[in-house]
Automatic annotation (TrEMBL):
This is Protein-S-isoprenylcysteine O-methyltransferase. It holds the Pfam family ICMT. The lineage of its organism: Eukaryota, Fungi, Dikarya, Basidiomycota, Agaricomycotina. The chain crosses the membrane at residues 20-44, 56-75, 95-114, 121-140, 183-207. It catalyses: [protein]-C-terminal S-[(2E,6E)-farnesyl]-L-cysteine + S-adenosyl-L-methionine = [protein]-C-terminal S-[(2E,6E)-farnesyl]-L-cysteine methyl ester + S-adenosyl-L-homocysteine. The keyword Transmembrane helix applies. One of its GO terms (biological process) is methylation. It is an enzyme of class 2 (transferase).
């Protein structure tokens, strides 16, 4: 692990820790993906091996892959900033509480309102659509990290680093903040996947406010770093979250 990056002290920043975390996340995501695929066995006539509700397993798979891909893309294209922090497992308490709230709503509604999962909102066409959003949003987020490479950071920088350049190509040619766009739609899709009503609304409102504030603050620094180049880029390309920031 690069020693030039100052990691947090919450998780040991060692190759052993990184390998154990990767193995655990991979095993969990793989097992969940296997469970999520069981409904397909119905089409093959293996009724005894199938189960009717794959949403939770898909959710666990999405969570595992998200944290793995955060680390892998950093390792592949932004190695100098690599640490165990790149898994984002030691993200803010709000992140973990939000997903805990979503899981709590899912389990409570599963017990007291099981019929909800028999409505159109939990139908296979809707599930397929939400799954597609998850895949596209995750891909957009990961591509943003790949295309920005050394210029990408999980933390808003108030000081311009030597390797910080203005990236306007790749997915940045379509939206100014593709990593935020990807995360926003990915996070909301996880709650749609679980058929969570309250959590879906809460995610939209809370994430909307968070990214609106973060983008406004970040772009003040970007204009200071890159001057007129960023101002012209901002005129040409939208934020990707038009209802929050132009």
């Amino acid at each position: 692990m690069p020693q030039s990056y100052q990691a947090k002290d919450t998780i040991p920043n060692t190759p052993l820790a990184a390998s154990l975390i990767s193995a655990t996340l991979g095993a969990v995501a793989g097992a969940a993906l296997l469970l999520a695929s069981f409904p397909l066995l119905r089409w093959l006539g293996a009724e005894s091996w199938s189960w009717p509700r794959p949403q939770l397993a898909i959710y666990i798979t999405a969570m595992g892959l998200f944290h793995l891909l955060e680390f892998w893309t950093t390792a592949g294209w932004n190695y100098r900033k690599l640490s165990v922090d790149a898994f984002l497992l030691n993200n803010t308490a709000g992140y973990h509480l939000a997903h805990l709230m979503g899981l709590t709503e899912y389990f409570i509604s599963s017990y007291f309102w099981a019929s909800k999962f028999e409505t159109v909102w939990a139908s296979w066409p809707v599930l397929a659509g939400v799954f597609a959003i998850l895949v596209l949003a995750q891909s957009f987020r990961s591509l943003a990290m790949v295309h920005a490479a050394d210029s990408f950071s999980h933390i808003v920088k108030a000081v311009k680093l030597d390797d910080h350049t203005l990236v306007t190509t790749g997915v940045y040619g379509y939206v100014r903040h593709p990593s935020y766009v990807g995360f926003f739609y990915w996070a909301v899709a996880t709650q749609l996947l679980l058929s969570n009503v309250v959590s879906t609304i809460a995610f939209v409102v809370i994430l909307g406010r968070f990214f609106s504030s973060r983008i406004t603050n970040e772009e003040k620094h970007l204009i200071r770093f890159f001057g007129n180049d960023y101002i012209e880029y901002k005129k040409r390309v939208g934020s990707g979250l038009p209802f929050l920031v132009n």
